[in-house]
Amino acid sequence: MASSLSPPKVNFEVHIKNRDKLLKSIRQHLSQSSLPLHGFVLLQGGDEQTRYDTDHLELFRQESYFAYLFGVQEPGFYGAIDVGSGDSILFAPRLPDEYAVWMGKIKSLSHFKEHYMVTTACFTDEIATVLQQNYQGSGKPLLFLLHGLNTDSNNFAKPAEFKGIDKFHKDLTTLHPILTECRVIKSELEIDLIQFANDISSEAHIEVMRKAKVGMKEYQLESIFLHHTYMYGGCRHCSYTCICATGDNSAVLHYGHAGAPNDKTLEDGDMALLDMGAEHHFYGSDITCSYPINGKFTSDQSLIYNAVLDAHDAVISSMKPGVSWVDMHILSHKVILESLKKGHIVVGDVDDMVTSNLGPIFMPHGLGHLLGIDTHDPGGYPKGLERRKEPGLKALRTARVLQEGMVITVEPGCYFIDALLLPAMNNPEISKFFNQEVISRFTGFGGVRIESDVLVTAAGCYNMTKCPREIHEIEAVMAGGPWPVKKT
């Protein structure tokens, strides 16, 4: 299938606005702290990496905070923002003459200045000199460097290093929380980039849906997706490693890694869980579709699918500024358990099930996460907001209250994972809720996840993902029907 989409021209104003937002926030912080409004925000971009000890260069992708502020595609750059004047300075590596022979034309500093819309461009070996010349305060110039914890990975952001840094004062605490908070609320230009990533990824998911057939391999579904997003969307990067799980693999939450490489043969009667999202100019998408490989839902598949879809829709209907994400997560558990009770998989009082933490047995992950330049965008747990300790809630990637301008994934799921179900069935406190006879029918079923990327608006929210979700829509599209489904 050809595409109705083509990659839009990137508007680098998005990065000017991002820098202005940071500048406003950091100046406000300094004023409130009775500190002088001078110094430099300094970030070091990413470097190219070779594969272990070889000369094979891995495909470069820019460090995310640097991408947010400067939008630079090339490796080896630094970027500074003068807190006093607001000027932005890009520092490019000084390339040897032979670069032109192997890698192409050496771009001028004026090219980088104009293309990336910064105040000035210099070479990286001039960082110390240029910053000292531009410093407006007295004494040693001050650098605000990026250092802080990513609460999803538990890794720390790496502060910039350069020759001559000992001539500067270093502040390692101010920048990270302020810049992270800037990334939480998206501008209209950022939303446009995320929307295109969603549009091309939604279209690619539909293409996979149409072409999936019994006897294919999981990696062929991944290949169809990657081809479509690159061929028609110019998306060279994915937001994350594709999860193309079928049959019992769909109960493996992060399937698709090197040890489980999307290589099972698709079998008649299998459910597929396909979690794939393309990246457009650094900004990502994160979409999951679940459906039977043969294009027709059985009654058991319909039961589990609709349980998850009802939770997905209930959350989206409830989302608006001021709503607690923890409450949305609990709501998703409640809706899924109510459906499982109607299907006689569990028995008893649903509120008691929620109190007894039965929900995380079927849905061990969090309801969703902030999305932007990273699939798991930072800012889920700002200072003062503690991660909950209860089962299920401790898996949440954020416990924030929703704000207008957040983009967050809504991804409820229901899985039959032996490693969780078997101990639960032997636990006297919760085993009473299981209908052992019916649940045994779902051994090897796998799981269902439905994931959309949702923008919080002033009035509520907007679903940026455009995939078939209702069972009749999925079956119609898989049978060759048009999408959107024509109303009769």
UniProtKB/TrEMBL annotation:
The keyword Hydrolase applies. Pfam families: AMP_N (PF05195), Peptidase_M24 (PF00557). Keywords: Aminopeptidase, Dipeptidase, Hydrolase, Manganese, Metal-binding, Metalloprotease, Protease. Its EC number is 3.4.13.9. SMART domains: AMP_N (SM01011). Transmembrane segments: none annotated. Belongs to the peptidase M24B family. Eukaryotic-type prolidase subfamily. Homodimer. This is Xaa-Pro dipeptidase. The gene is 25502255.
